[in-house]
Every structure is written in structure tokens, then in C-alpha cells.
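Sequence only, no structure available. Ideas?
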Amino acid sequence: MNLKTYLSRAFRKYQCNKITSFIFVANTGRAGSTSLTKIFSTIPKVISFHEATPDMSGTIMKEYNNNNNKLLDEKFKQEKLPNIYYNARNSSFYIESNHLFIKTFSDLAVQEFGCRLKVIYLHRDKLEVASSYYNRHIINKDVTVDVNDWVLDPSALKNLLKIDDVLYSSTKFNNLFFRFLWYCYEIEARTVDFCRKHPSIPVIGFNTNELNSFSSTSKLLNELDIPVPNNLLDIIGTNVNQGTSKSDIPDGISLSSVNKFSDICKTRLIEKKLNWIIK
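Reply:
I predicted one. C-alpha cells follow.
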């Protein structure tokens, strides 16, 4: 790093000395994160982003989750962090809804922001999320995004919920729907593991269904020490990124197989004490 880059980065960080909190949203995607970003963006002194650049997807995510941290460390320090400080410089709260947070740079955020870091665990019914991914990428064949750049690989070395023996040993679960369903449980496990590793960092659970609730959203803002805006009732009714609310099981997959797969995932989470307990 040359002197000019170092001084520029140091100045951006200095500009953010008075920021109250840096808040990131841990989630699976397809869970209402855009709606949550929209709510936050209407509040004075809050700067809110959805998957801010660089989003840390693709090769960065894949290499990090196979125990190669070099690219992530470089990208976070050289691009992600300077952008965060630049964007946050005139605000009291920086908020980023980005499901790559819990899959890549959460530990780096703890190191950088310390006691000013807060996390929202935005969770939605797992069957609904899996169905939403399946409908978008398999049924509707969305080619604008490569799902492998965003959804974890079940064989990745950093996975907490090992599932290879189930996914690949039987044709019963040989469908991408089960990969998406496993992924939801893996994100739950990583969020709980984050709480375990960093007990001093507040992690606030929030269900997607609560996005339309004035009382629930107000409570969330209070827990984040963010003033509740007077027009909150006018802005909480728009959900722009939840996809279908249906949790229809894809054709060719039986309800019994879905229940069995879910039970396996739940049992393994409980055995490792990595299941999220709603407070």
C-alpha cells in the first residue's frame, strides 16, 4: 500500500469517528432484505445499502469458504472497508443488508468495528426461501445471476452443517431444491456460531413477516437505538423482494422427503447447538 492510499483510507475512517453503529443484516437472500433496506433509507441520519459494492460474491465467497482467506482479506481492506467509510461519513448509522456478510466478512467486520457493530438476523420460513430460489433459478431460469455466486456450495470446507452424505448418497435428495433448503439451515448455523464467537456483539432476530408490523419494526429500531420516524406507518407496507410467499414443493418431490430432509438438518443443528432459539 502506498502512502497516498494509506492516508486516504485513514482520513475516511477518521470522518466516521462519530458514527453510532455499523449494522449488517445476516440472511439467506429472498427474505425481504430489500424491503428492510427501503425502510431504513427513509430515516434521517441513516445510510442504508442493499448489497453494497463490492458485494463479496462469486470467487471471493467460494475461495473463502474453502479456507483461502487471501482474496477476501485483500478485497475487504482495499475496497469494501474504504467504501463503507466513504458512504457512512455523513451519517449516524451505516446499514447494509447483504447476505454475503455472514458467509464471508463477518469476522473482519468484528475486528474493524468492534463495539459499534450490530447484526440483524433476518429470517424467513425455510421452505418459502427454498421455493423462492427454486422458482427463480430453476423454474423461471433467471440467467441474470449465477446462483452459484451467491448460494453456498454444500461441499465447501467451512460449512458447519455437513450434508454431503445425505445430498449425494441417495437419489431421493438429488434435486437442487434440497440444496436450497440445506442452505437456509447453514445460514442459521453460521448466525448462531457468530453469536457464540462474538457474545458482545448484539444480534437481533427479525422475521420477514414482521416487516408489515408497526410494533415489531418499531421494536427493532429501538433495539438498534435508531429513532422511530413519524412516517413509519406509511412505509412499512411495501415488500419488494420477498418473491412468492408460497412454499409449494416442486413437482417430483414428496412432502415426506422434504420433512425427512428437514428433520435431518434440524437434528444436526441441535446436536451442535447451532439452532437459532427465538428470544
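The beta strands are 21-26, 46-50, 93-97, 117-123, 203-207.
Hope that gets you unstuck.
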